[in-house]
Amino acid sequence: MSDKPPATVSPTAPVLDPAAVGAKLGATGYPEPFRAAVAGRLRKRLGNPLGITNFGVNLTRLEPGAASALRHWHTRQDEFVYVLDGELTLVTDAGETVLRPGMCAGFPAGKPDGHQLVNRSEAPATYLEVGDRSAGDEVHYPDEDLRYDSATDLFAHRDGTPW
Questions:
Q1: Of 124, 143, 146, 147, which one has the fewest beta carbons inside 10 Å?
Q2: Residue 6 maps to a domain
Q3: 132 inside domain
Q4: Is the pLDDT of residue 90 over 90?
Q5: 161 in any annotated domain
């Protein structure tokens, strides 16, 4: 009999093997023409199958040339990223910073500093992202005529016109 735990664990248990979680390649709610930016993003939602409801936890891989999201900031949601492998470029209002394994970055809610991760390397990169699920969050995209309202689950132009 082996002392090793099974490869997958019941979703009701407090343990989860990320390899058992389905991944979504390029999945996004962005309206066209914005979807292409995240076409090379593979995201595994780890918090949901564990029953975590106050914050989200995602294991995300970016293929070369892919972005984590459009450059954005949240009115109510804090975000945190931790690089596991590969190399990513963090793009903010202040410029660009290369993030390598073991480095992390945080984005406080309500700070209008658009951010995104871009894989400009030749190899995939993986990071862990954590964000709270504050009600009434709005997301602003400073480089695009786009905003998102979590209360209505709708994307709109900056002037409020729906996409």
A1: 143
A2: no
A3: yes
A4: yes
A5: no
